[in-house]
Amino acid sequence: ELKVEQNPLFLSMQEGKNYTIYCNYSTTSDRLYWYRQDPGKSLESLFVLLSNGAVKQEGRLMASLDTKARLSTLHITAAVHDLSATYFCAVLSNDYKLSFGAGTTVTVRA
Amino acid sequence: ETGVTQTPRHLVMGMTNKKSLKCEQHLGHNAMYWYKQSAKKPLELMFVYSLEERVENNSVPSRFSPECPNSSHLFLHLHTLQPEDSALYLCASSQVAGDTPPLHFGNGTRLTVT
After folding, report:
1. In the prediction, which pLDDT does B99 show?
2. Which of A40, A50, A98 lies nearest to residue B103, judging by beta carbons?
3. Which residues of B touch A45 (CB under 8 A)?
4. Backbone phi, psi, residue B84, to 5°
5. What residues contact B61, with CB distance under 8 A and at least 6 apart?
6. Which of A42, A44, A45 to mutate to test the interface with B (most CBs of B within 10 A)?
7. pLDDT of B62-99, one tens digit each?
8. Which of helix, strand or coil describes residue A82?
9. Beta bridge partners of A74
10. Residue A109 burial by CB count (10 A; 0-12/13-18/19+): exposed, middle or buried?
11. Using the beta-carbon criterion (under 8 Å), do B45 and A48 form an inter-chain contact?
12. Distance (Å, whole) CA B81 – CA A17
């Protein structure tokens, strides 16, 4: 069974500083997704990473995938308040089941 | 507008009630999913329908009964639920796995069982 671990589970960020969220998974996969969820809202797709070494960037967020290490990172550059949300990674197994991490709740403070 | 619409947004029901959750997608997708999101736990896949046929049932208790009458609509029928079933129930859709596109989620139904 594919297990997905995110850390940290809670992250208090100071505005303007850089932070990283880590996503480790237990079995081979080269399909990884990052989602964002605001309180009371739906999950919004952020990034789709489909191969080893894939890197995607959107604004202050950058995601990367290392399939050999079974690790994805979500890097936040110069945090701002509107990045406060819960971030989930999800990994697709070989039998096309999508397993989610527990989520990282991010709070950005002034 | 997410392209996936769930109703109701909130539902409070007693343990002896019968209710249904509804999901509709306007994205032309052909796979639909029910997920359960509980506090402090990862999202749990409950059911998957691909091309209107159920392809996954993750050992979900029979008090949850899904229905997929067509590729745009998905229901979750609820009866004799337990308080531990209180959670956010999320519907999602996608194209059938091939290019492995991301799931598109609805806003969810917040269910409270009293």
Report:
1. 53
2. A98
3. 102-104
4. -70, -5
5. none
6. A42
7. 999 999 999 999 999 999 999 999 999 999 998 875 55
8. helix
9. A21, A63
10. exposed
11. no
12. 46
Q: Report d(CA B109, CA B81) in Å as an integer.
A: 15
**Identity at A57, one-letter amino acid code:** Q
Tokens linked to B45: 């896949």
Amino acid present at A49: L
> pLDDT tens for residues A61-105?
999 999 999 999 999 999 999 999 999 999 988 777 788 999 999
Distance separating alpha carbons of residues B79 and B36, to the nearest angstrom: 16
Supply angle C-alpha A32, A36, A38, rounded to 5: 160
Q: A43 vs B105: CB contact, 8 Å cut-off? A: yes
Helix (H), strand (E) at residue A34: strand A32-37
Is A45 close to B103, i.e. CB distance below 8 A? yes
Shortest Cα distance from A36 to chain B (angstroms)? Answer: 11
Give the β-pairing of A61-66 and B18-25.
unpaired
Amino acid in the structure at residue A81: H
Helix (H) or strand (E) holding A22: strand A19-25
